[in-house]
Design brief:
Blueprint: E1 3-9, H1 11-28, E2 32-38, H2 41-50, E3 55-61, E4 72-87, E5 108-111, H3 117-130, E6 135-139, H4 143-153, E7 157-160, E8 172-175, E9 183-191, H5 197-220
Parallel strand pairs: 1-2, 1-3, 5-6
Antiparallel strand pairs: 3-9, 4-7, 4-8, 4-9
């Protein structure tokens, strides 16, 4: 099999799903050329329509569904919970139980840039569940930068499980949200119509990697 697959995704999906999928494609389908670009859905949709990329892994949060433009196909890939991230010396870090959003009214928050799904989710959750307007003082689309802001400045964050450190970090306290379960879904977006054999093979590998990741998350819980 020969062909080219051009895939894009947000940072966490690129790191945890697309990069491992490329590694598997090199073994299973070495004559398929795969190209990876890190980008958000807002950037990706025009490129999908133009045909400059073939698939995108996007996300959507509970209570904040994405639009479904005509001509594109959306398929659920992975579901995961959102976690509160506090500095390890935060007053609510002990005991290691769930934390209510209402308890974080006076905190400084970090989120993604305005206009992104993550920013809207953080602000919307604090408003609807916590009952307040959060002080979102720091913004970055890079989850590692958000985590560093929690470590260094004492800010708090609400992040998907996939973006969190894979090993224990003594500077961070990761807690469930007490008020209700909040989650994120990862979705594969492609153009409507038949897929090439190369794209079909890549979709199979990505789906398998997401299943493997879901099994890992289940064992950790």
């Amino acid at each position: 099999m020969r062909g080219t697959v051009r895939a894009g995704g947000l940072q966490s999906a690129t790191r945890r799903l697309l990069v491992p999928a490329v590694a598997r494609m090199l073994v299973q389908h070495p004559r398929v050329r795969t190209e990876i670009t890190e980008l958000e859905l807002e950037q990706a949709l025009p490129e999908l329509r133009l045909g400059t990329i073939d698939l995108v892994i996007s996300d959507e949060y509970d209570g904040h569904p994405r639009p479904r433009p005509a001509g594109l196909r959306f398929a659920l890939l992975h579901e995961e919970p959102l976690k509160l991230v506090l500095p390890s010396d935060h007053r609510l870090a002990r005991p290691a139980g769930p934390v209510a959003l209402s308890e974080l009214q006076d905190e400084v928050w970090v989120a993604s840039d305005r206009g992104t799904g993550h920013h809207d989710m953080v602000v919307g959750s604090c408003r609807s569940i916590g009952g307040y307007e959060p002080d979102v003082r720091h913004r970055s689309t890079d989850a590692d930068v958000q985590l560093e802001l929690v470590r260094v400045t004492g800010a708090v964050a609400l992040l998907p499980a996939m973006t969190l450190p894979t090993t224990a970090d003594p500077a961070l306290a990761i807690r469930d949200v007490a008020d209700q379960r909040l989650g994120r879904r990862l979705v594969i977006v492609c153009r409507d119509g038949p897929s090439t054999p190369a794209l079909t093979a890549f979709l199979t590998v990505v789906t398998s990697q997401a299943h493997h990741l879901g099994n890992e998350d289940g064992r950790k819980q």
